[in-house]
Design a protein that fits this description.
alpha+beta; 4-stranded mixed beta sheet; disordered C terminus
């Protein structure tokens, strides 16, 4: 579902959904001057570089797979989401070998694991016993990362898994009420008015207006789109982005959240990638804020019927700062 903005660079101008999308060859994101030399940043760089190559080869479905992975694995770190999507775009539920065994399922022979990063946590060494005693109750610290392997449910066989209650195509169920409650918690007002037509939704900064008469599913996605603007584009970030960047980011968030609750969202727009003109650093920055924003919204409106299948204790999922 396309979204775009007819707003200008003025910080008070509202975002309007459903206007004509303009293309641009540049992004005003500030170029990242340094690339942190650590495994998590390398993981992200590899995934983004792969995405760029696929899109340059005309394979826009790779972007859709990345956004879909953000919907399915919103509790995972950004780097691990990209790693899962790159290695197995069709993955739906992943867990470590031991976790699948506990759930009554077993990894099939010859299946190749999906490599992600897990944190290594420990206590720092102290110079002497006195310092050790003084800091006996110190919290564990992140020492580094190690590679672990998870497997998609399709790579396993055994006992049937319970389905998530929200996986009902086209039905927003209780998620609309939870989204509205989330808005109230963010001090964002919601109104319905015909005056915004032909736009389906408008974000004013502290207030969202929706066009009446939309289907429940369409209204939900419109609302998520405008919420994304409120969370992402009403700060100094607005001055660092073009209208096209802002609209495509909001569209991506709406796609992820809609898929996350089981709505049929169709294909993601390939326009999301074209504005970056091969700039991997800018693409990574945009994808990361999209993932974090959608994770916040999904975390607020979803309650899983069963815990998400994650690696066992000896195979924790890495959190990327």
């Amino acid at each position: 579902m396309p979204y775009a903005s007819s707003s200008t660079a003025a910080t008070t101008a509202p975002h309007r959904k459903n206007a004509a999308l303009r293309s641009t060859s540049e992004s005003p994101y500030q170029q990242r001057t340094t690339q942190k030399d650590n495994p998590t940043q390398q993981l992200i760089k590899q995934a983004v570089d792969y995405l760029l190559k696929q899109l340059e080869a005309g394979k826009s479905e790779t972007l859709t797979a990345y956004l879909a992975a953000m919907a399915r694995f919103h509790s995972y770190s950004f780097g691990n989401i990209l790693a899962i999507a790159r290695q197995r775009p069709t993955a739906s539920r992943v867990a470590g070998f031991s976790t699948w065994k506990e759930l009554g399922r077993f990894v099939k022979r010859s299946e190749k694991g999906i490599q992600i990063l897990a944190p290594i946590v420990g206590h720092p060494r102290r110079k002497n016993d006195q310092e050790q005693r003084a800091d006996e109750k110190s919290r564990p610290v992140l020492i580094g990362f190690r590679a672990v392997y998870v497997f998609d449910v399709a790579q396993t066989e055994g006992a049937d898994l319970p389905e998530f209650e929200h996986n009902i195509t086209g039905d927003v169920r209780e998620h609309r009420d939870r989204l509205i409650a989330f808005l109230a918690g963010q001090d964002i007002a919601l109104d319905y008015t015909e005056n915004i037509a032909p736009a389906l939704g408008v974000s004013y900064g502290g207030k969202i207006a929706l066009l009446p008469g939309q289907s429940k599913a369409e209204e939900f996605v419109t609302l998520v789109h405008e919420v994304a603007h409120e969370l992402l584009h009403k700060t100094d970030r607005r001055t660092k982005t073009t209208a096209t960047v802002r609209e495509t980011e909001a569209e991506a968030v709406a796609f992820i959240v809609g898929q996350g609750i089981g709505l049929e969202m169709g294909r993601a727009s390939s326009d999301y990638i074209q504005m970056y003109a091969g700039n991997a650093a800018l693409l990574a920055e945009s994808l990361e804020v999209v993932q974090r924003t959608s994770a916040v919204i999904l975390g607020a409106i979803t309650v899983e019927a069963v815990p998400e299948a994650t690696p066992a204790a000896e195979e924790p999922v890495a959190e990327v700062a």
